[in-house]
Write a structure and sequence with these properties.
Blueprint: E1 5-19, E2 22-23, E3 29-30, E4 36-53, E5 56-73, E6 76-96, E7 100-110, E8 129-139, E9 147-157, E10 170-173
Antiparallel strand pairs: 1-4, 2-3, 4-5, 5-6, 6-7, 7-8, 8-9, 9-10
């Protein structure tokens, strides 16, 4: 019998989004007295199968985000309460070589959280995102004790719902 999955992982994670700059609905900078951090709790499910495409193992993931934010300044008040946010799902291919592992993937960010252009209680971003990723871990010794790793992601976003705001595309190197 063929084993369907090599690895199945369910976990919770916490993403932190620190910033010292925010923008209003017209794209103008809002001055902050200090930096702020938004936090999202995520239920994350990953699956790596034994099926192969182009020699790479097929995997996938889906994430369900929940946020709770309270941001308050003299002229700025945001309170979301604990609420469901945007969802993401992705597919990956992974290759295990003798001295390196390589992954390539696609992620789709779906606007499942609530969003209204002038609301102060948005739980979602109000836009779709598409992300292409590639990463590698290179093992510096035969026992794979020492390694160096890097990833690159390129994200393309749509306009925010019911606005003409486009946040732009984003490239990230880690």
């Amino acid at each position: 019998m063929i084993e369907l999955a090599q690895r199945f992982i369910r976990k919770t994670a916490r993403q932190r989004y620190p910033t010292d700059t925010i923008k209003d609905n017209n794209g103008r900078d809002v001055s902050l007295p200090r930096s702020l951090t938004s936090t999202a709790d995520i239920i994350l499910v990953n699956l790596v199968t034994n099926y192969k495409i182009f020699g790479g193992k097929v995997g996938g993931s889906i994430g369900f985000r929940f946020i709770k934010n309270r941001i308050q300044f003299n002229s700025f008040d945001v309170h979301t309460g604990f609420a469901y946010s945007d969802t993401f799902a992705g597919a990956t291919l992974g290759w295990e070589l003798k001295r390196a592992d390589i992954t390539a993937g696609y992620n789709l960010y779906m606007p499942t959280g609530s969003f209204s252009p002038n609301a102060t209680d948005n739980t979602g971003l109000g836009m779709w995102g598409n992300e292409l990723t590639i990463g590698s871990t290179v093992y510096l010794d035969k026992k794979r004790t020492w390694n160096a790793a890097a990833t690159f992601a390129l994200e393309f976003n749509t306009d925010k719902k019911d606005t003409n705001i486009h946040v732009g595309n984003l490239g990230t190197i880690e």
